[in-house]
Design brief:
The protein has 144 residues and is an alpha+beta fold. It folds into two domains: 63 residues, Inhibitor of vertebrate lysozyme, Ivy (3-Layer(aba) Sandwich), CATH 3.40.1420.30; 57 residues, Inhibitor of vertebrate lysozyme, Ivy, CATH 3.40.1420. The protein is built from three helices and nine strands, in the order αβαββββαββββ. Strands 1-2-3-4-5-6-7-8-9 form a nine-stranded antiparallel β-sheet.
């Protein structure tokens, strides 16, 4: 019986893995919103790679730029995560209230990544501090 359960669990796990489909795509295959975002905020920075990740529940996109930036987009083309550990991310991407807070309290620290979900932003700074903000820009706390 234990053997049957183990085999059944393995088959279920493999079937879910088989449903996921991550593959390279041409940048022109990204959603239009994602293409426009890259053109506006990273003009002149070549795209090294673009991937689509389709699974049972949703579709996501990952883009890597020549300057070390990695951008994740949801299926609609809205960014969900932007990271650049080399030089930080452009201030033009970060909501004004967040840059205002980080400049005032962590002057000189670059924003290395920003993650956005349905209720908050998570910002990681070059000094190791991780901050959580509401979508309206209010500091909610610190992340460990």
């Amino acid at each position: 019986m234990k053997r049957f359960i183990a085999i059944f669990t393995l088959l279920v796990a493999l079937s879910f893995n088989a449903m996921a489909d991550e593959r390279p795509i041409e940048p022109t295959q990204l959603p239009k919103i994602a293409q426009e975002f890259i053109a506006k905020n990273f003009a002149g920075t070549p795209i090294l790679s673009a991937f689509v990740d389709r699974d049972v529940m949703d579709t996501d996109y990952e883009v890597r730029l020549e300057d070390g930036t990695k951008i994740d987009f949801n299926g609609r083309g809205d960014w969900t995560d932007i990271t650049n550990k080399r030089s930080g991310i452009p201030a033009s991407i970060v909501p004004h209230k967040l840059t205002e807070y980080t400049s005032k309290h962590y002057n000189g620290a670059a924003i290395l990544s920003i993650e956005r979900n349905s209720h908050s932003y998570e910002v990681k700074l070059s000094n190791g501090v991780e901050l959580i903000f509401s979508l309206s820009g209010k500091l909610l706390g610190y992340d460990d």
